[in-house]
Design a protein that fits this description.
- The chain has a domain of about 90 residues.
- By secondary structure, it is mainly α.
Length: about 140
């Protein structure tokens, strides 16, 4: 008896526009390193491309650290909440105010996380717009 073969198809997520844009800029910069261009305008545009890519990496690194710090604070607060949970049945929970205060701090951290994510997205959007403009300028100058 011949068995059926099962074919597993993995779904590879498509790259976003910004990822493809950054890949394109990286490709342009790699090709620029491999050749020597005497055209001053092309070198200026390529330097601006490198600076924009560096700025994007810097923004991502800063926001990654901010997210890590917020996660650390959330873990600390969650630990404090757990430690204040009643361990044996009691009639009056004396620590309810402390737990409510800690939960309010968690909500504030969540709001801060959303604000930082929005701020990062806005910064990256402006940098991606500049990157797109520079790629178009470099492409229009020719000599790829």
């Amino acid at each position: 008896m011949t068995g059926r073969r099962i074919r597993i198809i993995e779904h590879k997520p498509e790259k976003s526009f910004s990822e493809r844009l950054e890949d394109r800029a990286g490709t342009l910069l790699k090709s620029a390193r491999n050749r020597d261009t005497s055209d001053q305008v092309i070198r200026i545009v390529e330097r601006d491309l490198a600076l924009a890519m560096s700025h994007i990496r810097s923004v991502r690194r800063v926001h990654k650290q901010l997210r890590r710090d917020l996660t650390r604070a959330e873990c600390y607060i969650e630990t404090e909440i757990i430690q204040r949970e009643p361990r044996i049945p009691v009639y009056v929970d004396r620590r309810i105010a402390e737990r409510d205060m800690l939960r309010a701090r968690l909500l504030a951290i969540g709001q801060e996380r959303r604000r930082l994510a929005l701020m990062e997205a806005e910064k990256l959007q402006a940098l991606h717009d500049r990157l797109l403009m520079l790629i178009n300028r470099r492409t229009s100058l020719g000599d790829q």
